[in-house]
Amino acid sequence: MLLSSLFIIFIVAVSTHATFICPRPNGFFSDASSSKKFYHCFNSISYHKSCPSGLSWSQTQQRCVFISSPIEPVKPVEEILNGCSKGNPCENGGSCEPSGNDDLFCLCTENYYGSRCEHVGEGADLSVLESIISGNNNNYEHVVENVLSRNNWTDILAVVDVTGSMQPCAAAVYKWMKLSQDKTKNIRYYVFFNDGDDKLNSAKKIGSTGGIYSMAANNLNKVLATMQSAMKNGNGGDIPENDIEAILHGIEMCPTCTDIIHIADNKATPRDLNLLNRVTKPIKVLTCQVDVADVNPQLLNVADKTNGSLHTLDEDVFNLSAIPVGEKITIGRRTYRRTSSGFVVV
């Protein structure tokens, strides 16, 4: 591999930098005074960072890189990082929300839905979600509340599957956050994903399936609107989902979040497990819709291979990586054995 093509992701935080005004709440921005430094903004607070020795900041690649040729000209950061800066593509009065590197999603006005608010109507039926949030329906799976109450997690990034029948679990995340907001403010960032909005199954590509909506947790009304948009715009399709793509997006958007929880559909296997080696933080997998079914062994593998943990309605399973090949573990009523490629049901 040529030296010029080699890149290093490692970055070093130096200090907060009060004189730099973040162009948008979250993102990475060039330091016009030095090619060796850059700014990392999180929740509108800027952190001045330096690249490791011998590397320079590349605004286009969003990384510190080896550069063997003259440094590329710096483009306006808004043009690169904020998809909404080029204009509002949302139709029918929808508002544009930036989401990641040069990406966006739309929050639609009443009676419109779709990735660009292009459809008239209500989209997916959200009556279950609304009944749980309003308190009129308490007859749902309480795995989210139970797990979050049992564990003293802080600085949480919540990555939530909002496809189809996952409405109760998604509502429970919001409900728990609303009840505990004044005391703990534990959840800092939300990612909701629906596996590609209304894409045809044949158009879903690993790593870029889409249907990902993310929002800082400091405005719960906006969080709820974002969750509802992700639900309305989902359109069924095949069963496998883009869990790992959504997790990677969340880590990019909230790199300082320390506890990554994944509210997962136990009845669906992630389509993008081959991206799991890119996940650099432990994932705490909360399994929804287990019922009488077994815990999906692939979700057990997500927790295991990221040095994370698995959580059900009644159990917290830690230290999965300490289980030797050939040994067994019982979760609920089922036993699983570790093989060289992961856990399987016995």
TrEMBL record:
Task: Tell me which UniProt keywords the record has, alphabetically.
Answer: Disulfide bond, EGF-like domain, Signal
What CDD domains would the database entry show? EGF_CA
- Classify the source by domain of life: Eukaryota
Show the disulfide pairing.
C108-C117
Taxonomic classification: Eukaryota, Metazoa, Spiralia, Gnathifera, Rotifera
Residues in domain EGF-like? 80-118
Entries under InterPro entries matching the protein: Chitin-bd_dom (IPR002557), Chitin-bd_dom_sf (IPR036508), EGF (IPR000742)
User: What protein name applies here?
Assistant: Uncharacterized protein
GO cellular component assignments: extracellular region
Reply yes or no: does the keyword Disulfide bond apply.
Answer: yes
User: The Chitin-binding type-2 domain covers which part of the protein?
Assistant: 19-64
